[in-house]
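Morning run. Coffee first, then this:
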Amino acid sequence: MKHLHRSFYLALVLIFFISFRPAFYFLGKNVSKNRSRIIRLRRTLASLASRFAGFNYKFSIDQPIDWSRNYIICANHTSNLDITVLMKVCKADFSFMGKEELLHNPVTGFFFRTIDIPVNRTSKISSYKAFKRAKEYLDEGKSIAIFPEGGISDEFPPVLQKFKNGVFKLAVDANIPILPIVIEDAWKIYWDDGAKNGTKPGTVKVHVLKPIETAGLNLTADELHEMVYKLYKENWII
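And here it is:
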């Protein structure tokens, strides 16, 4: 039944994407003008697919978030549902930075060719270009979402992996606050891509921590890295 539920959810995502495809195609002709519309429509697609598949989300927020500011949004990564989580948490426009392979997915490919930032983490040139583009987005007042672990752990139950340092160097260089989001238990209902264990309806608990200011703190990227990693170790308990 769990594998059947996974197939049902993936079919829902594809059906809604195909239904919205004419709108995406039209908006994609002028991404700079229609960026916000594409992001809002993607959020609607994700919310509809989740709702019909029986995925619910429960949020606890340490303090109200000022969405008039831009952030580097960080989250731990154990499930494909984490992408939907961030779209539901974040009330402002933002772009994902994600693995280059998502360009070849029939759904995510559109977004990574238009509003998101693909990166090949094994290539220094690709990583440099991706972070350069992310810096440009941040300088324009846009937000960026990154999973600092760089991928989903092969271990089950999952463990918090080491964070990549690029995101923290970006935060320090751009003087942009980090918004840490702890996704507590998405893996229990949808681990990784669901291929091994299948999926099931359920509720994902999400803890939005206080933003971490970088301007004026005089922190190095390594010190910021250590601070954020410690927060996750303290707040994400398997």
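The longest strand covers residues 55-61. Good start to the day.
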